[in-house]
Amino acid sequence: MILRDAIVVQSLDPVSVAVGDVRIEDGRIASIGGLAGGGPTRDCSGCVVVPGNVCAHTHLYSALARGMPYALAPPEDFVQILQRIWWRLDRALDEHEVRASALVGGMEALLSGTTTLVDHHASPNAVDGSLDVIADALGSMGVRSVLCYETSDRDGPEVAQAGLAENRRFLERAARGELPLARGLVGAHAAFTLSDDTLEACAEIARDLGVGIHVHVAEDRVDAHGPVSRLASAGALDERSLLAHCVHLDDAEIELVRTVNATVAHNARSNMNNSIGRARVGLFGDRVALGTDGIGSDMFEESRTAYFRLREDDSTAGADWALARLAEGARLAGRSFGEPLLGTLVPGAPADLVVLDYPAPAPLRAESFAGHWIFGLSSRSVRDVMVGGELVVQDRRLTRVDQDQLAHEARIDAGRLWRRLDEVASHQFQAEGARPWPSPAKAG
Q1: Whole-angstrom Cα distance, residue 265 to residue 59?
Q2: What is the pLDDT of residues 278-287, one digit of tens each?
Q3: Which fold has domain 53-337?
Q4: CA distance 19 to 33
Q5: Side-chain-side CA neighbours of residue 377 (13 Å)
């Protein structure tokens, strides 16, 4: 495949721009610029080709929840939001709705120019095999993914053990090379819902299989009592760790995150929606990526919101900050896939890219591209999407599945899920003490 006559953004951090043809061979970028020779072509004149976006933290299981009816008393704090909404929803999920949610999330990711999803999954009544279901659903439409199961003691020791087993089983399958488009991390909910033994078991799996832990950290003040230090004490904190949110960390805990070189997934829109405060993203160094925390997968919108949120506190922040955060998300995914060039469009890089139909109204060069990204480009410009050299979106339509039929079936699935949710009571987990259940080894 040859993409003809494009403006090609070869790198987001630092920004590098070329003009010419993009030749793709064997799923990788073969060359850029000049005449690329013969072969199937796509006319990209007047278009901008950019690396595929990566969402560094999401919850696909929330994909069927938009507009979901709510009849309980309004939540008064973050824990009640979890108890009355999300911890009810995840207990209502069965395997069918897990798949349907992943399909909807994957569809919306591709159509918005996101080629890789880093997902944090929970379905306490359908744990076993749930990550296979998600990997299969996303892979069926050509989405790259990094998956984990959200281990937690909030539903009791048996569910916690099932979560540990699901993480290990899926990671071992990925290590055998059975999942071309999927990799894994070890999932853990948050320190305040994890016993010491369960947290240490997560760390043991991560060490055994050479991966990191994907965990919520200090999203709310309920989890602000030394969560990073606790992760470190359990052996669950290193340069492979992915720490979502990190809103309520003190200076010492932030310094510990920087010292071990862990990655922070910043979720600006979710933090604003839940009224939990502002993450001090400027203090974490370069290893800050962007996620949505389940509010879709549109990284154009997420990066723009995160940038404007930062500018409220720091008027010196440049628009290239948002591009660097997206590039960091790609580096995170690249480490999972053993693809250090993922997120770039240079010879040898995986051909994960997006063609934007964007007739630039001002000169588009390396030094001006960040301004175009923040103030002009958006997901509505997405025309084509390629993952691993395959066109998975062509002329704004998915190529592998019928997106209209998928949306129709999802509406039926969502109605079924909502009716089941009516039968699920508010979760009774209490945050006090941060160790709600006896550890499995000590039960009884």
Answers
A1: 13
A2: 999 999 999 9
A3: TIM Barrel (3.20.20)
A4: 6
A5: 31
Q: Record the tokens describing residue 56, joined without a space.
A: 């560094």
CATH 3.20.20.140 domain position(s) in the chain:
53-337
Question: Which residue, 115, 116, 194, 108, is CA-closest to 150?
Answer: 194
Encoded amino acid at 341, one letter: L
pLDDT beyond 90 at 443: no
Residue 206 carries which DSSP code? Answer: H
Identify the residue with better confidence: 69 or 130.
130
Across 141-165, average pLDDT: 97
Question: Coil, strand, or helix at residue 405?
Answer: helix
Place of tokens 């899920």: 417
In the chain, ranges of CATH 2.30.40.10 domains: 2-51+343-398
Nearest to 55 by CA among 346, 376, 370, 296: 296
| DSSP conformational letter for 425 | P
Q: Is 110 helix (H, G, I), strand (E, B) or coil?
A: helix
Q: Which residues contact 232 (CB under 8 A, 6 or more apart)?
A: 256, 260
The domain made up of 2-51+343-398 has a fold known as Urease, subunit C; domain 1 (2.30.40)
Task: Give residue-wise pLDDT tens across range 88-98.
Answer: 999 999 999 99
**CB-count burial class (<10 Å; 0-12, 13-18, 19+) for 375:** exposed
Token match 């897990």: residue? 98
Q: Where are the alpha helices (DSSP H) in 210-285?
A: 227-233, 251-260, 268-273
Q: Regarding beta strands 15-25 and 53-58, do their DSSP bridges make them parallel or antiparallel, or are they unpaired?
A: unpaired
**Quick one: tokens of 139?**
């892979």
